Amino acid sequence: MHEVLAEGRWIRLIRADGWEWAERTNASGIVVLVAITEAGELVLVEQFRKPVGRRVLELPAGLAGDLADQPDEALETAALRELEEETGFTAERVERLTEGPVSAGFTSEVVTFFRCSGLTRVGIGGGDESEDIVVHVVAMPDIPAFLADRAQQGVAIDPKVWAGMWFARS
Q1: Residues near 19 by Cβ (< 8 Å), separated by ≥ 6?
Q2: Positions of E strands within 25-164
């Protein structure tokens, strides 16, 4: 039996069998995008993240099923929507790569990685009205130095970026 400890607009805290964890209340899934240009560049995003109190460099990502009129949104559809919204790119091909827990001891969230290719720039990106996203398009060989430079400047690097590099080369 699950006990609800607290519930906000986006998150519910649960307790069961000695465990406590967080779960999202407004989404059916989470997509993470490994978007690769024809020139062999990886598309990254950077934005301020309140829980860690600083800017974070990440792979583009977002929620599926978080729109009131599309609660059963397919993950592939959410991947394409989030790619364009956050980065200004569309993709001809979206390939499901893998899925897994984000932090299995803290949250029930599971992310699904997609490789996006055949990219076309159709806008500037930047996210929706609640986001302030900076888009970075970085050549694969330059990514380690780019990440080191951003970290030196105080930007947190999401470890999923390293997984994205591996998927981009596969």
Answers
A1: none
A2: 29-35, 41-49, 54-58, 61-64, 89-101, 110-121, 134-139, 156-157
Q: Which domain holds residue 114?
A: 27-169
**Token code pair at residue 105:** 């001891």
Distance of CA 169 to the CA centre of its chain: 19
Query: In degrees, to the nearest 5, what angle opens at C-alpha 62 toward C-alphas 71 and 160?
Result: 140
48, 2 in Cβ contact below 8 A?
Answer: no
pLDDT in tens, the chain (170 residues): 899 999 998 899 999 999 999 999 988 899 999 999 999 999 999 999 999 999 999 999 999 988 777 778 899 999 999 999 999 999 999 999 999 999 999 999 999 999 999 999 998 887 777 778 999 999 999 999 999 999 999 999 999 999 999 998 86
Residue 43 burial class via C-beta count within 10 angstroms: exposed 0-12, middle 13-18, buried 19 and up: buried
Contact 76, 94 (CB under 8 A): yes
Domain with residue 104: its CATH number is: 3.90.79.10
- Predicted TM-score (pTM) of this structure: 0.92
How many domains are there within the chain?
1
Query: What is the distance between the alpha carbons of residues 107 and 19, in angstroms, rounded to a whole number?
Result: 11
What distance in Å separates the CA atoms of residue 1 and residue 77, rounded to the nearest whole number?
A: 34
